[in-house]
Write the structure tokens for this entry.
Amino acid sequence: MNIITVCMSGSVSAQAEFTFDLDEDDSFVWEVKELNIYAFEKTFGFEPAFEKGDKTRRTIRDIDEDPDGWELSVEFWDYKDEFDEDGTIITEVVYDDPADYKDNIFIPTPVNDYLEELPDHDSSYVVQGASVDKRETKYTATREYDQRGVLVLEEYVDDDEILLVRVEATFRIIPMGNYFIGIIALSVISIIFVMIKKKKFVIKKS
């Protein structure tokens, strides 16, 4: 199931060399950052079921091994749902064969290796690293994944290069996680220490 429900649906894929890196209780929120209602209606023929600023959420409740990959029990909140209320439980399968990729929200890792195999089974896909462009009749859809295999950006652009809608994740990963934060903090402290030390040894001219 796509983040932006237009007229498509999805599942995921991978092979024996791919793994699934998410855990139970991992939660993800996406927000509609840009929306051109007029162009959207003109392209798709109906009004969007969301507005700019609306959010949708998914929380993984259970992960089971599946002969074709991994079966997820996911609590799902649509764009107009209240997050403080219970969501709807849905099932999503993350397949371990790239040939089963259908514009999915969750995919196996390593992401780049997984996506590189997509053009082999569908020439409409153009892959650049962790980003996938898919050419449709009236528009191009772009989907970008993070290093864990989670969709972090989904946008649609029409033939006149007008942005129809863009949805972005609110959980972008910081490179190397807390380790990266620790390095930055240590670097800042070191710079401050050096500056203070230099200041102490400054010889004032009379």
Notes: Residues 177-200 form the longest helix (24 residues). Residues 7-16, 174-189 have pLDDT under 50 and may be disordered.
